[in-house]
Amino acid sequence: MSVGDNSPTASNPNAYTSGRVLIVAGSDSGGGAGLQADIKTVTALGGFAMTAVTALTVQNTHGVKDIMNVPPPFVAAQMMAVLSDLGADAVKTGMLARTEVIEAVAPLLDDFSNPAVIDPVMVASSGDRLLTEQAVSAMQSLMLPRAALVTPNMPEAEILTNRGVETLDDMKHAADRLMTDGARAALIKGGHGNDAVVTDLLAEQSGFTVFENPRIDTKNTHGTGCTLASSIAAGLGQGLALAAAIERGLVYVRRAIETANASLGTGHNKPLNHAHPVLDKSQDS
Asked: Is residue 45 one of the residues assigned to a domain?
């Protein structure tokens, strides 16, 4: 079945064109990451979020307690239902968890002409494993070739490329390897580094772009990867160029960290303030 792009046409003049994003990911019962963070992000940035749930997690600010997997055919059915009716201007994948889910999701992206942002969610910020070791090769062989952008953090880049990633040069080599493996572009996120400045590296066929921002000393960083990937997908779906979508996403995430409520939860993985654009506007009025 062709999923198309639902662009406005004479037969479909009212097609939504402000960033329809299909999110294929797991849920976070704590609301800080996963589908919940993705939906909040896309909505706050003016897009329209749709979902295909891959797994249910029992988690809070202390970590992941349990995972219930969704059968792969049901994940695919959710995607097909959305794409064949509402359409999407971008797809963002997050927690795919297992080889069987990757094998169900990947072929559906072949008929999808708009950008796919692949966030290779492997380990939660609490340290809990969210992608089985057996599924890493499926992520490499099936998802990378379908990625308009892949967004690993430094530990994920190490796993995907089988090489250490600590310096900017390491990030460049890893990004080159990810593109050799099929990704059209790669964003290596530097949040796991220890420097006072967080360095994120975008690699495209045309070269590298470096984004630098002062590190914020805070516990409110749960879901930053999900949030950034979803913000980029929303930007691409709204017609922004890749670098511009990333830059807007970084600003959004930074502000979400800065305005987060430190009293939410008692653990070390506290959520962001995804609603800050709405709150900022209400304060201005």
From this structure: yes
Residue 285 lies in a domain: no
Is 63 one of the annotated active-site residues of the chain?
Answer: no
The three-state secondary structure class of 230 is: helix
Give the domain extent around 41.
20-280
Residue 219 pLDDT level (bands cut at 50, 70, 90): very high
Task: Establish whether 239 is a catalytic residue.
Answer: no
- If one counts the domains in the chain, the total is 1
- By residue count, the chain amounts to 285
224 is catalytic: yes
* Catalytic site residue from 32, 51, 93, 189: 189
> Of these residues, 225, 235, 237, 249, which one is catalytic?
225
Query: Residue 271 is part of a domain; what is its CATH number?
Result: 3.40.1190.20
Question: To the nearest whole number, what is the mean pLDDT of the chain?
Answer: 91
Q: What is the pLDDT of residues 15-29, one digit of tens each?
A: 445 899 999 999 999
3-state secondary structure of 64: strand
Catalytic residue among 61, 221, 265, 270: 221
In a domain, 10, yes or no: no
> Known catalytic residue: 189?
yes
User: Which residues are within 8 A (CB) of 263 and not within 5 positions of it... i.e. 6 or more apart?
Assistant: none
Identify whether 226 is a catalytic site residue.
yes
Read off the pLDDT of each residue in 84-102 and give the average, rounded to a whole number.
96
132 assigned to active site: no
Catalytic residue among 31, 32, 191, 223: 223
Contact partners, residue 154, CB within 8 Å, separation at least 6: 165, 166, 171, 188, 189, 190, 191, 192, 193
